Amino acid sequence: MNERAKTKVVITEAELGRLGTDALVALGMRPDDAADAARILVLADLFGVSTHGVSRIESYGERLMIAGIKAMPEIQIEKVAPAIARVDGDNGLGPLVGQRALSAAMDMAREHGIGVVFARGSNHFGPVAPYNMIAAEAGFASMIGSNATTTIAPWGGREAKLGNSPLGFGIPDPDGRPFILDMAMSVVARAKIRNAVKQGTAIPPIWATDSNGVPTEDPTAALAGFLQPIGGHKGYGLALVVDLLAGLLSDAAYLTHVRSWVDAPDQPQNLGHFFILIDVTRLGSADWLSRRMKDFAAILHDTPPADPARPVLLPGETELGNLERQRHEGIAIDPEVLKALHRFARVGASAGETLG
């Protein structure tokens, strides 16, 4: 037995998808909706991003059980132009709203060459990379983002006014791996700091500051303080752009109007997302794109590494390697996460009549 299997339970993609779906169904969701939402979370685990995988069903489930998130939302799609639509998520589970918005963007991109969707009335929708991956597998280049609960202070400020809004890009390769870049606006995601609290470990001082704006290695103090933005003032500006697209233009909440799911778990967050998809088949043949993508990657891979033990990689290569390996070997999951899924399935089944 390898080290990976000693500390974690190895489960197939199909089994994990069924378990995640069953937990969400027991928590009141429709089976098809639950399966669509679980797909995003399972892809996160396949990528090796366990902080945003099926472990998220624990926090989602707590809000579903008190109707802070609607288990059976009536998601509405409104076409406002030939290639632009708005999605009202009706306070549904974020990955479900995200899947519906992505599907609408793909439909318009197939018809018009480009599809743009602004979603509102949503919640935390998981990591961005799974959406970029689904789009790339269908032949679309994508730029996708969401706003988030406030955790970052404006550059030079001492109060959190903007979220650690994720932003992702995807470019398909018809004959190989797509290019996937999934990034937050902070040096690290807040989930990594929460994990450090659970594990009782220190964090690097470049990750966050305490409530006084002083860099800290204490994860508990960091959760009470602010995340450090990437690139200083440039990261701050980029975070604002994401919130303008995802929050302001979508008619969702933005900046401090976004409610914290920790402080007000029974209240809608009204998060917003945006999806911009391009049908790359309109630009050239599959052979044309594949040749150019391979040349693009080769130029970077051929760069002499500063550290011979660490070759130059493209963004997303590590995660895509994890996905390929875990699809073959099985997904390594923390046994406590699996216990939580089983527990929510049981509790959700008994509390289902309170959901809606």
TrEMBL record:
A Pfam family annotated for this UniProt entry: Ldh_2
Record key words, sorted: Oxidoreductase, Plasmid
InterPro entries registered for this protein in UniProt: Mal/L-sulf/L-lact_DH-like_ah, Mal/L-sulf/L-lact_DH-like_NADP, Mal/L-sulfo/L-lacto_DH-like_sf, Malate/L-lactate_DH-like
GO MF terms, alphabetically ordered: oxidoreductase activity
PANTHER family: MALATE DEHYDROGENASE, OXIDOREDUCTASE-RELATED
UniProt family annotation: Belongs to the LDH2/MDH2 oxidoreductase family.
Record protein name field: Ldh family oxidoreductase
